[in-house]
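Case study 2.
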Amino acid sequence: MKKIFTFSIFLMFVSAFSAHLKAQEITKKSGYTLSFESNFKELDPQLKKRLIKTFLEVYPKLAKAYNPATIKEVKFFVDTAYKGVAATADGKVTFSSIWMVKHPEDIDVVTHEVMHIVQDYGRSVGPGWLTEGIADYARYKFGVDNEGAKWSLPALKPEHSYKNSYRITAGFFAWMEKSVKPGIIKTVDASLRDHTYTKDIWTKLTGKDLDALWADYVKNSEV
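Prediction:
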């Protein structure tokens, strides 16, 4: 009887695992593959399509612009247990089901997160604010519907710093691209990936360190 019971449990496990695999959806386009999984039964099918479409549109562009050698197979997982917004590790993006319900319009969370895959800095020699600032700069530049999500670069405030990360840093980078040296963020991104980055790179590329560049930005922050 014990053996039969154990075998029954095993069959239940296999059945559940098989059902999980069937829930996986594989999409391939232009040499890239997206594996989509979710344990959120109430996920809007239309939202799922938008997430996949955004990846297929944005990821190849990010790869071409920043890192053509980036991985070709990416995984998405909408998780009911995850309490943040989204997180990326080892080619897998985990999205919060809660965030999806509250902010279904924020489709370019995909753009930010897959930029982290393209960045592929490993044990980065750069600060965290720089990594996140570049990812939000990529969202600003390549996002498919930032307007729909009411997402934009913030107006500069006296208490802001380039070390604030995310959109604040992205605004600073957008200004640099326009007013200081076009292509500078791509160069810095590459230095982070090959681990040659030092804070002196800004001076080498522009003649000014970050503090001096920020001071110029404060004087005229128009992007």
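DSSP finds nine helices and five strands in the chain.
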